[in-house]
Amino acid sequence: MEKFLWLDCETTGLDPKKNTVHQVAGEIVINGVSVEEFNLEMKPHDRAEIQKEALAVSNLTVEQVMARKMTSGEAYRNFDRMLCRHVNKYDKEDKFVFCAYNSNFDAQFINEWYIKNKNKYFFGLCHGGAYFDPLQLALLLEIKSGKRLFRPNRKLATVAKYFNVPLDNAHDALADIRATREIAKILFERITKS
Length: 194
Hints:
Blueprint: E1 3-11, E2 21-30, E3 33-41, H1 52-57, H2 62-66, H3 72-86, E4 96-99, H4 103-116, E5 126-132, H5 134-145, H6 156-162, H7 173-192
Parallel strand pairs: 1-4, 4-5
Antiparallel strand pairs: 1-2, 2-3
Helix pairs in contact: 5-7
């Protein structure tokens, strides 16, 4: 049974120790079937630094994010319960494949979010260190083709534009993960073509 956790998060800055998530969105796909989609928008964790520039990327202000009804702790509990409905954290064989664009960034922030909520076992829900990252596929496609395809960079919006994948609301976690899944399909098909 293949279980994939497609995830994107929006954050209050770039340092997972000092900053935190304010939106976590994604989709759980089991055996090729989408079984659950989620979009959790929350107030940042109490002691988190909030950088206005980081929120501006998502067209948000500090006031808008702080006015959200759901706390970081409530969002964490909802998220963890949802994941535990689909995998048995005590079974070493029953884990998610963590899927994200620039996956290391998201994985670090989600892991720190768990730690801030007194749970150091986020990675107990996923295959340890085995991420599926379309960013790496984009690089692999460029290597295979022998040319630089994605200019000026390999960011999600650039790759989406190259493949004509709609991304109308970039830096909204749910819009980003929908584009990420579509891009992953295209990249996988192009790389595996003979």
